[in-house]
Write a structure and sequence with these properties.
This protein is of the alpha+beta class. Helix content is 30%, strand content 35%. The chain has helices at residues 2-7, 34-43, 64-76, 165-176, 179-195; strands spanning 59-62, 80-83, 86-105, 108-127, 130-144, 153-158.
């Protein structure tokens, strides 16, 4: 019985620190030649992403700077709108924060973004028989890729303390009419983002 126990081998293995004769040789770096590079570029003509990511695994590219500038440019290009009792224009983009990215995963390109913007609006309306100038803000809460159908705008009027409630409500409703052209510009932005 004792002989049978002593002849069994242990299933435990461990790493050997010293190199043995039957061990695999250590890897040696090899400098790439121009021929090696040209063969690699011809083989992967349909490859997306960086040159180092030939397998097309996860790769994310930050597009924040481009997206922020482009959203500002497109939204400002909306210009002015005429209403039944006045007109208004988007004067500036006071806040534009968020993230935009391009992800390459399994050799497929996917894009996305999430942004929040605040726009300063200047305009004049006919109130009580005379034209009055008003400033306000349009707040577009968090919106993201493919979800512009649900986009809502919050209107804040500045310097409107002397207005009656009906006039304030009318001006707010007029300012909400900026939502449709802004959505059209954001759809244009999404199309450009897909092409990057």
């Amino acid at each position: 019985m004792e002989n049978a126990e002593s002849t069994t081998t242990s299933s435990y293995t461990y790493w050997v620190r010293e190199a043995k004769q039957d061990a695999a040789p250590l890897p040696v770096p090899k400098k790439l030649t121009a021929d090696d590079l040209s063969v690699g570029s011809n083989a992967s003509s349909n490859h997306l992403g960086s040159a180092w990511n030939k397998a097309g695994t996860w790769e994310e590219k930050n597009l924040n700077k481009w997206a922020t500038e482009r959203i500002k440019e497109l939204v400002l290009s909306v210009g002015s709108l005429e209403f039944s009792s006045g007109k208004a224009e988007i004067a500036e983009v006071t806040r534009c924060i968020g993230d935009a990215f391009l992800v390459t995963v399994r050799n497929k390109k996917r894009v996305g973004y999430t942004y929040e913007i605040t726009l300063k609006v200047k305009g004049e309306w006919l109130v009580g028989g005379e034209k009055k100038k008003f400033n306000g803000n349009l707040d577009l809460a968090e919106f993201s890729f493919g979800e512009l159908d649900d986009l809502q705008v919050e209107v804040r009027l500045n310097e409107a303390k002397d207005l009656v409630h009906e006039d304030k409500q009318r001006i707010r409703e007029d300012m909400k009419k900026f939502l449709k052209p802004i959505c059209q510009k954001l759809l244009e932005f999404e199309a450009e983002l897909r092409e990057r």
